[in-house]
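Quick start: read one record
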Amino acid sequence: MAKNDRVLLDGIIDDRLEMRLPSTRRDEVFEFLAFEQILKDADLSKDEIEIGSVDGRNDGGIDGFFILINGILLADPESFVWPRTGSELDVWIITCKHHDTFLQAPLDNLVASLTELLDFSLNSDQLKGDYSEEILICREKLKFAYRKLSPRMRKFCMNFSYASRGDTSDIGESVLARSEQIKAIAIDAFGTCESNFTFYGCTELVELHRKVPNFSLELPFLEVLSKGERYVLLAQLKDYYNFISDEGKLRRYLFDSNVRDYMGLNRVNEDIKDTLENSNSPDFWWLNNGITILSTSASVIGKSIKLQDIQIVNGLQTTQSIFNYFEAGGNDPQNRSVLIKVIVSNEDAVRDTIIRATNNQTDVEFASLHATDKIQRDIEEILERNGLYYERRKNYYINLGRLPSEIITPLYLAAGYVSLVLKSPQKAASLKSRFMRSTDSYNRVFSTRAPINVWPVIARLLKKTDEVLERLRPTGSRINERFLKNWRQLTCFLTVSRLIGTFDFSINQLIQFDMNIYSEAEIERTWMYIFSFDPKTINDNGWKNKKFIIKLCQAFSNEFNVIDIQRIERGYGVSEYSVKKVDIEFALKVNELLPPQPWKPGIHKDITQTLKCTNQEYFGAVELLIDEGLRFAQKDGVVYDYDGNVLCFDPERVNPETMTLFDKPDA
């Protein structure tokens, strides 16, 4: 380790302490920095890093537990878009210690925990160790992912890391021996998995921190057709691979605006793979729809094009397939080409329109397109006027260098709306991003009928609450963001209710709320009441208990003369799914009764009558069949494959030129 690397690392930590990233506690700042840098190639957002942070009591020596499938973080198995074949499962188990050396004790603890945590023959209640809820949830997610992906898994890697402020060239033999033992535990548990253990000290963390995303790249091409600042290129496959990769890693940050995740080897991607592997196939671009790139500027220099602020907004499936092929050692003796469309624009509205147009091809993917909704752009604009930045596009403002304290995520803001407008702080604290998959729930929260001025008020109230709760956080409570997520909504809601005098305050009262009276003293007064009401619940997740919340609010109402307590009991109405969940056994029964696609309107009536099921159960079964690759998405008589291409259509109902119903006007 260079002598000054520790000084440099401490300087980075000092800067992040000022930004409260993620808190004002040095060990937590170091831990977050380590997660961020170790997983840099995954390009995780702040929210995603916090999902994998499991540090706290009974963590089994594990501070970070991250599960990535085809490079995408598994946050919620129920809403995850599972690949159908060709899956890659990467698990990262990270230990962080803000020490000046690498100690054996943390790895001793890890050895004892992993021996049973990775033994999936044991149920959670059979584990001898006392593990936190977060660790058990991560274990169940890994267990589920391993079981679901095992028939289609192309690669499985267990990555263990130990980060400290130490020197990786001076690690004790006993510590190294423990790291080898940990690798062996993983291999013993999973057999053919690849097992790695990496130490990260000051030098390694500083080097990773210096590595920043490069949004300015040059792409060689064979031919170009241009009109103004619009370009159509033919580039060799190998040149495109070099363009999208960096030292053998895919530049995932180039795809922040792409609304699709890589689907593994579905039928379309299998065809792409076969084409790449067949050197006698026609030129690649003859068979492929190509890539669409957005850029803020482009200049052609000889036989290459220099692009600024690159975002690949369509063609992720093609790009990932090309990357996988060359990364696996493939070659292209025929020097085949890929078709690339480059569009230069600095207008967000135009860029969003292009993103939606190039991705809005199937009903299945619509939920992922909300970032381009008008309401989302409106919220971004109104927050920016108030000195806040709305991260509707992942890591957009982080990459622009905005302070984390100034950045608001959609889920953060949505939770505030559920709490302060819909009057359900308990539901808000547990809100997950999958609620956006339900059109009803999404429209209820991000309502175009809600006054736009309510959003900066919600954001300011939550940010102010976070500042105070961070200072008041009880000693020994789990990592900052988890504590804040659990208690910010209830604390904020009760404080606002007390200051207004009613639990049933209107949205206009919220907009007109005087932020000057929402002081640190008032927030602290509310928190101290919550804490004193039942201190045990603070560390026992009392916020999850509806009865506790109602009981607390009733007592709060009596103590501070806050009226309309009955409104609390009506505040639990935000559902996360509009389609009823069904199992695969029922879905297969539906599949047997479904005719070949495209089926006619009203087919659900016959099937629901035959199976004596509800419409919700039928549509839930069809959604599951599509997810499992047994059926394709169908809308208005048109059937689409997994990449949005038209497979077939009902000639009796659909105009073959416009792909719209005959009785519908052309779009």
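The chain is about 45% helix and 15% strand.
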